[in-house]
Amino acid sequence: MIRFLALFDALDRTTKTTAKVAALADYFREAPEPDRVWTIALLSGRRPKRAVNSTELRLWAAEAAGIPLWLFEEAYPVVGDLAETISLVLPPATRPEDRPLSDWIGDLVALTGRPAEMRQAAILDAWDRLTGGERFLFNKLITGGFRMGVSQGLMVRALARATGHEETDLAHRLMGDWRPQDTTWDALILSDDPAAAGARPYPFALASPLDDPEALGDPAEWQAEWKWDGIRGQIIRRAGAFALWSRGEELITDRFPEFAPLADLLPEGTVIDGEVLAWDGAAPLPFARLQKRIGRLNVTRALLREAPAHLLAYDLLEEGGTDLRARPLSERRARLRALLAALPADAPIGPSPVIEAADWPALAAIRATARERQAEGLMLKRLSSAYHVGRKRGDWWKWKLDPFTVDCVMLYAQSGSGRRANLFTDFTFAVRDGDQLVPFTKAYSGLTDAEFNEITRWVRRNTLEKFGPVRRVPPELVFEIAFEGIQASARHKSGIALRFPRMVRWRRDKPAEEIDALDGLRDLLNAQS
Predict the structure, then answer these.
(1) Is 110 a domain residue?
(2) What are the phi and psi torsion angles at 237 (to 5°)?
(3) CA-CA distance, 45 to 117, in Å (whole number)?
(4) Does 149 map to a domain?
């Protein structure tokens, strides 16, 4: 664990990309191989399943420190981090021991599902064998709040430097459903066995936001298509395997049984990038229909009837087992059209339409109709572009419609977490419904640190009631909330739910008497429906 702590400290001390890459590359050359695999897993979001909840940790830490629980609870928001608070209050370790990172994680994994007494004894024993910095990292592993300030792309760059492999190859190797507890360094990073790819997806190419397409030059050099509002995914038919992966690297094949026929229809060695949408047979349905299927492991017949799935294909990444990603988009799209044209007309897949326009103003007029088509705007892709890894600025752009906005008033405030634990950053907002104020959404992002500091001071001066960490405040502060969509919701008192709400402006210029009404949101809901 000492070696891993040294890596953590080196990454935490610098904001320079070159220094972080160098530290990671040294670690990937020198650390024990199981530790390397677990470090890759942690940096790519594959954390061990939580074996202990935060309530248990607080109780056990207070008991081990010999302090009342209320004192620990008072210290926690001051420190701002549970793992650090525990590390600070515990007495020094009496049996310090340097064990590999993988061993400590293995111990945590083994505690899953065990009785509370056994888990408590194991955690107390670990705390007594770890020094302050190691104990902090161990606590982070328990709580699942592990952050090292390293992006996936930066980690891949360091792996490339340490191993000599190409970054694109390494990024592909790290995709898919691998588990660090039963994966070796050789199998994950070094093996050249092509069969190891199996149903592994490629890293997704992402687009950058665009404000003014005029800067892109000649429209003839670009392909325009709708930015559909669904689930980005890759259909894979390779090495006898068939899979549907989401952009979040979640295997969702079983959740969309409509695509099962493609296992027989698609040629061996095919990988297609596209958007999963709810489909009425000719056009997309609202995202709210598809949302009912997200997270549902068992898809009922009623859901299949209400929101049948269809894939609108964007790109052909692999054909006949050949990686096409380096070929120009114009060629990949031509091959995609030919492949899809050979499928039966009732296959649950089709090409995402390419939009033709004489110039940028004409394309802007088409973009204005996006919501009528259940789209969020347009995608612009350079016809000569490769299918890159991640977000490579310059070749792919998303030209989205402006979000919806509503002016509302804050009713409740709650403190944040991590570095914002001392600030009130999570707010509940209300709109008018006649003479009443009706809560309708929550938001916690979009303001500056200076604004959050100012609001925190105001909340502390004006708190009317306390409900645990929540403070009720006078309905005086008005905010403009932006959101991407709206849908009916029986779970909310207002009857509506917003999609991706965030604060875009503190309306100091507007009194609470002038906030928007719930009727306006209902009208928008009806229009969207």
Answers:
(1) yes
(2) -125, 100
(3) 29
(4) no
164 located within any domain: no
Q: Are 82 and 56 in contact (CB under 8 A)?
A: no
Predicted TM-score (pTM) of the model is 0.71
Number of domain units in the chain? 3
Tell me whether residue 429 is exposed, middle or buried, using C-beta atoms within 10 angstroms of its C-beta: 0 to 12, 13 to 18, 19 or more. buried
- Domain membership of residue 324 as a residue range: 205-400
- Render the burial of 291-326: b for 16+ CB within 10 Å, e for the rest: bebeeeeebeeebeeebbbbbbbbbbbbbeeebbbe
β-strands 436-443, 478-483: how paired?
unpaired
Mean pLDDT of all residues belonging to the chain: 89
* Listed residue (367, 339, 364) closest to 274, CA to CA: 339
Catalytic residue set: 227
Tokens found for residue 463: 């708190």
Do 409 and 286 share a structural domain?
A: no
User: In sequence order, which residues have a C-beta less than 8 Å from that of residue 285 and are 6 or more positions away?
Assistant: 277, 278, 279, 307, 374
Vertex 4: Cα angle to 137 and 155 (nearest 5) = 105
What does the pLDDT look like over 161-183, one tens digit per residue? 999 888 878 888 888 778 888 88
